[in-house]
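Async update (no meeting this week)

Hi team, since we skipped the sync, here's where things stand on the single-chain job. The sequence we agreed to prioritize is pasted below, unchanged from the tracker. I ran it this morning and attached the output directly underneath so nobody has to dig for it. Comments welcome in thread, and please keep replies under the output.
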Amino acid sequence: MGKKKKDKVKPQLLKGFRDLMPRDMIAWEQMLKTIRDCFELRGFLPFRTATIETAETLLGPHYNEDSLAELFGFCGPDDVNMSLRYEFTLSLARFVAATPDLPLPFRGYQYGPVWRVDKPGPGRYREFTQCDIDIVGTSNLLADAEIIATMVSTFEDLGINNFVVRYAHRKILNGLIQHAGISDEQGPDTMRVIDKLEKQGRKAVIDELGPGRVDQSGDKIKGLGLESNQISTIEEFLDIASDNSINPIPLVEKMLDGNKTACEGIEDIRQIQAHLKGMGTDPTKLKHDLYSGNRTANPCCFVHDPDRRKVITNVVGWNPCFAYMSVIQTKGRTL
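Output:
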């Protein structure tokens, strides 16, 4: 006998998606209005990018079908591979590169849904909202300070008081990688493992930098196989980074022995801190971290609960879009 044909459709919500009741939407819209008002008061203008991008924009020119399957990707009209966006950074890069008459520096903000195929979990959805502020077309570190200060102001305007914005500079970690004698090929993987410090703990990180480890589920995690002296250098760095009773910058400068890349990052951080002080940003809401917990951001910011002494969520952050623009044709524009 054949399978019985269904007469009705089951009202089933997909995993990782959610509906919002009117009471939730009212609160949601009030929150967004507060955020918009804060951004616009500080000179950011609204703009919007497309929710669907070409696969090339999101994955680069040499993507394959497997990488497209990791997104909400599909073959659309005219046999063009495309995908729902998974963040705003690449859309921003495409937007700026494709708009030669856009005045620079450009100060804008946008918000809207993004989609990721990640496994759903507590507080983790496959469809969620991102809200971005961007300053494009300047290398002045005042822009970085403005982003941080706006983040602080936004949370304060929303009535959220128990938070700390943590910021870091990738150049300091790059300098550590160079000083430890770790190859360029292993550098990104080393940062990826260090990123796990708060979630996995120090022992797990050190094991994964070396021979490998077994996670809580019993799965074997392959190690990077770094040399013992390279791991010792990273441990010394983590000792300094984890000591909240000291100013880590002078110790890191001494440890990294004048590494040019790290020194550039440290000087940038000092300038950003000076700008934040001049803006009157509450210093109790700021914390400089030597490692970011986000290997792609430069700098990056987190919000955590000081009383619980751990990160609740990475709710804010920003990426330099010029790295992505290097593979996007810019119509003759110099950026």
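Quick observations from my side:
The CA atoms of residues 125 and 291 lie 26 Å apart.
Confidence is low (pLDDT under 50) at residues 293-300, 309-315, 317-330.
Reply here if anything looks off.
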